[in-house]
Amino acid sequence: MKELFLFPSTEELMSESDRGSVIVGAAILEKALTRIIEFEFKKNGLSNRYIVKAFDGNGPLGTLSSRIQIARGFGLISDDAFRDLMMVRKLRNEFAHSDSHCSFGDELVRKQIDSLSFSKGARSQMMNMPVYSALLAMGVKELARFYKYLFCLTVKDIEVSIASTWVDRNRTELTR
Length: 176
Fold this sequence. Notes:
Radius of gyration: 17 Å
Protein name: Mannitol operon repressor
Number of strands: 0
Largest sheet: none
Number of helices: 10
InterPro entries: MtlR-like, MtlR-like_sf
Distance between the termini: 14 Å
CATH architecture: Up-down Bundle
Pfam family, one: MtlR
């Protein structure tokens, strides 16, 4: 499983710019989805040649959106992971393609992060850390840092969910 999933440290994502954190976070989740879908294809006998074509930019799984939909359609991810992945995809597109400066200090971005199912668990983890509960009471710069950390924890939690759903589904193959 170690080679299937990246499980980056939260500090690695935090060291990126706001834009970088969102783009890299989305890329980590996209890689996790790609790997579980590839595994299913290989398990069902699809050759590497066709797997590569499927994930090619012009292939049926050439976009993050299509990978998310296929993963949910085949039960590879939960409903919560599906909804959160679609929102992370939307955030990634906003951060990657916006002419204006996007940041975790933006109210719309904070609302989108608050809407993520996995951010609720990450938030409760953070609230047990005095430094982050204190940040909420401070200004916008600190609030942006809080939401950046919340986003980074949420990415990690979504990836863990993808991995655990995949492991549960493939437990018999893994124990052979």
